[in-house]
Structure formats: C-alpha cells, structure tokens
Amino acid sequence: MSQVPPPTPPASPHDWPPGQPATVYGVAVPSRTSAAAVASLVLGILGCVPLLTGVLAILFGAAGIRATRDPRFRGRGLAIAGLVLGIVSFVAWSLFGGMLGLGYVRSKPARAVAHQFTADLAAGDVPAAQSRCTSNVTRPSLDAAANAMRSWGALSDMTTSRFNYGAHTGGETCVLDGVATFANARANFSFRLVKQGAVFRVDAFSFVDQKGLPAGTVPSAPATEGG
User: Fold this and answer.
1) Contacts (Cβ under 8 Å, ≥6 apart) of 214
2) Which of 99, 106, 127, 216 is deepest in the core (most CB within 10 A)?
3) Quick check: 25 pLDDT over 90?
4) Domains of the chain listed by start with CATH number
5) 100 burial class (0-12, 13-18, 19+ CB within 10 angstroms)?
6) Model confidence pTM above 0.90
C-alpha cells in the first residue's frame, strides 16, 4: 500500500520574489505599496523646505527600500527615486546655504562702513561721512541728506534685510537694503558700496523715512535675499 507524501510546507517569505504576491497554503496574499516609499518620492519631488525635505526623503527612501525586501510590499523604484531626489535636494540646498553664508561673511565689512556712514550723517558730521565715500558721492548730496536727517536723531540700529555681494575682476561690490532706526524715526535704506584698496566705500545711498521723504542718491544695483 503506497503512502501519501506529506504536504509541502509553504515557502519562507525570504524565498518569495520581491514585490510578488506571496502564497500561504494556496491562498495568494496581495502585496501593497510601501508607504515609506511613497512618502520618500513625494518629499523628494517637493524639496521646497531647505534641507528638511531632502533629509526626510533620504530617510523614508532607505526605509522604503528595506520594506520592499518583504514580498508583501512593493514600490522599490519609488523609494530609490525618492532617495536620489532627496540627495540632490540636500546637496543643492547645502551649496546654496554655503554660498549665502559666505556672501554674508564677506559683506560684513561693507555693512560696518554703511553703519558708520549713517551714524556720521545722522550726527551732522558730513566730512566724516564723505571720507567713507567714493568720488561719485558729492558733497552737496551729503549736505542735503544730513539736513533731511537732522530731525531723525541719533542712529540706534540698522537691520539688513537683503544683500548682494559680488567679487569679479573689477573688484568687490556690495548692495544692502534694510531698515535704520533713529531716535525719532525709522527709515528704509539702500546702499551700493565698492571696495577700493582694502576698504569698502559708499558709492550710492538712499534713505526714505516712514513719511516717504527721501535723502541721498538711489543705488541702481538690485539686491537679493540675504540676512
């Protein structure tokens, strides 16, 4: 009398092809897309928040790749794509932040000159202010600015909201925009400074108080976002 062979045990989950439905005792178990893989791809495509979305895309991408080793999950391609986009986003934002930080550091001497120049004008010390300027800034324009600023009082603070630092064969330039706070007024300022020798000098400037009254000469160079 022949013996019936025992049933073949189900394959180990590790023997199933990745992303393919598993079979448990003859019943197909459908696979589903890994949530981590989808999240990685979405974050990698967005990449809009500096560094954060890139880092999250990398982390979710790695988690998605690990998850898709289990045949119950698919989406390995999504996870890899999200991981790659996350790396690109992280590197791009890192380079941008590094360049921005370098420009901010390089513009520090120019910001110091602009601050002292403003303090001199507010104090009515036109000769001192003129000593910090190029020949493009005339004495009559400085006298007019000092007269317009006379009622503003002493300078107490200057906050730079935008800057544009550039180094080229012709030298170094720096454009600054921001708000200056005086004892009796607040005014928007704009500066263009050029480096002559070892120091920056004011090449053009303007102040506009809250009433819209201008003082100075308006720089023509545009500014870009900074701090």
Assistant:
1) 148, 206, 207, 208
2) 216
3) no
4) 13-104 (no CATH), 108-217 (3.10.450.50)
5) middle
6) no
